[in-house]
Amino acid sequence: MKTKEFKTLDEQIEILKNKGLTINDVDKAKELLLRENYFFINGYRHLFLKSNKERVFIRGTTFDELYAVFQFDRSFRNVLFKNLLIVENNLKSIISYRLSKKYGIKEREYLKPSNFSQDIKKVRQVNDVLNKIKRQIKLNGRQHSATLHYLSNYGFVPLWILVKLLSFGMINELYSILKPEDKLSVAKYYNLDVETLGVYISLLSNYRNLCAHEDIVYEHRTQKEIPDTKYHWELDIPMMNDEYIYGKNDIFAVVIMLKYMLTESDFTDFVNEVSYDLSLLDGRVSTVPQNKILDRMGFPENWEEIAKFD
Questions:
Q1: Burial code of 67-105, b = ≥16 C-beta within 10 A, e = fewer?
Q2: Model pTM?
Q3: Which residues pair with residue 62 across a beta bridge?
Q4: Residue pLDDT, tens place only, 136-181
Q5: Residue-wise DSSP of 112-151
Q6: Helix (H, G, I), strand (E, B), or coil: what is residue 57?
Q7: Residues in CB range of 41: below 8 A, 6 or more apart
Q8: CA angle 30, 34, 35 (to 5 degrees)
Q9: 30, 266, 273, 292: least surrounded by Cβ within 10 Å?
């Protein structure tokens, strides 16, 4: 097994220099490495490497450029997170409204197993998900003012209040056990089919967790792909082997999902904020052209045009 040793700030600087990184202000670089963590900043090096085989920086790459990408991803992650929270809240509201209207407002009414998928293959899954939800009421019901208010005054927690206790991942699980007709009523709101919305919720839940834990997001790829959409065609995204090369399992796929799931005004704001961050990055990075950065994100060069389409 390989061993890993602690490296001082001076040693970290030397490692970066030996890989060809130009560091004009060593004291500033050491301060940033201490504050932000060498591992996290160095995680953005791949954009600037000569190749996967030559694990050295492109000639002229500076620490400031490396840090600029780190800062861009932080800002982008915050913008994305904000909008994923909007989607999460909207889903919770829509699902709780549909189920409450149809099955009732008390836990013993809306959490009946008979209200969910009757597929024999999903019996265990249905019970597991409902038990998780009931556990949330038991463990956290009196920790939140809204749920405490209903428990204290009415003796139950309606679903539109309960969803505040549920994570995006839990909402993903809840959607997966809904009856087909209930899934359809939710999917119709977004003008999506049931299966596609299921894929979207699963992937957006994954990205929400990445954002919350400050992982590298701008170049993240998922194993699961989203189905082809009209936006792939309208943006004339290039294809290889009959597959679109952008917008399938990359960050642009997230942009497409948000296009379907945000309001027009929220989506326009999102595009404008990302465009602004990209323009700032373009002014701070000269070693790597912006089209290479866009390619790494999975963005076609005309990505902003998606805001113009219905």
A1: bbbbbbbbbbbebbbebbebbbebbbeebbebbbeebbb
A2: 0.93
A3: 22
A4: 888 887 888 888 888 889 988 999 999 999 999 999 999 999 999 9
A5: -GGGB---GGGHHHHHHHHHHHHHHHHHHTTTSHHHHHHH
A6: strand
A7: 32, 33, 66, 67, 70
A8: 120
A9: 292
